[in-house]
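Dear colleague,

As promised, here are the two records you asked about, laid out in our usual form so they can be pasted straight into your sheet.

NAME FIELD: protein one
SEQUENCE, THEN STRUCTURE:
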Amino acid sequence: MFVVVAFRAVGRKELSRYATHDIVLLFLVSTAARQSIVGSDTSLTSAFIALATITAWDTLASYAAFRSKRLARIIDGRLRRLVKAGTVDEEELERARISRGELSALLRQHGRDDLAQVEEAYLERSGRVTFVLRT
């Protein structure tokens, strides 16, 4: 549960990129947590038990988030509206730790280059930014 909380504290935006340093971070966290999960036992059986335990915790967290909106907000985070009615919400950008330039770069990945073309933009619970474009 500590690892889940730690990743929630880091933020969805950072974890959705899968840059090299993110993969290294995940590797280091798993290495650091290994000793706590299986101790000094290096057997395949303990590895399977640890994997089953982690999978069970993930399944339980997913089910709890499905059943309870409050828990979903804690486990998955909340949806953030970054652009509303064509106006960038600077406070939400700051809370999400996304710069205006980074938002523009994400928009360019969708084939547009002007934030004025955006009606709404959201930082989804998955960490991705979605855009609703003006027609």
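NAME FIELD: protein two
SEQUENCE, THEN STRUCTURE:
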Amino acid sequence: MPSALATLYGHSGGTLPAALADWEERVDRWCDEYVRDFPDADLSEMNLDLAVFQFDHAAERVTLAYALSVHQLMCRDSGRMRGFPNVNASVRRVLGDRAFTADKGHFLGHASGGILDINLFPQRRELNRGWSDEGKRFRSMERHVAEHPGTFFYHRPLYCDGSWIPASLEYGVLVDDVRWWVERFRNI
């Protein structure tokens, strides 16, 4: 059975770049680190043709999302987004005095083909909208991915507790199939 990465590239008709030769080992290492930090984790991989999600069923949260960027698949479904759980109530309940104003962030950006549902999480508003220096860097990376269809990218949330609110986010972009551009961003 082909790997999720091979399946992704198979759907796109593209060729797997040499820079991804160790991708499966990297994912395995990240999964091992996650299980070491959260021993009750129940991880599975969900291949959605255009994207792959690692999901912890015990904590009900995404632990990794990766894809090849495509042109935006559909118009933003504002009604459906409004119906999504109130992320600010969740953030206030979990973080109390450390709460931040949250947006419904996308692990895989909407403009680069990201879907709803599993792809949504509470994200600091100034990061998501590019209002801070960190946010400007984050939005620059997202723009690059959206403007270059076929770009491999990943988003890895890093958690400090059992909630679905990532403490920080690691965002990686494979530029021109050769060079990694990886940044970490505070989310709490």
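A couple of things worth noting about protein two: Strands lie at 43-47, 51-56, 61-68, 102-106, 120-124, 152-158, 168-175, 179-186. The CA atoms of residues 160 and 177 lie 32 Å apart.

Best,
R.
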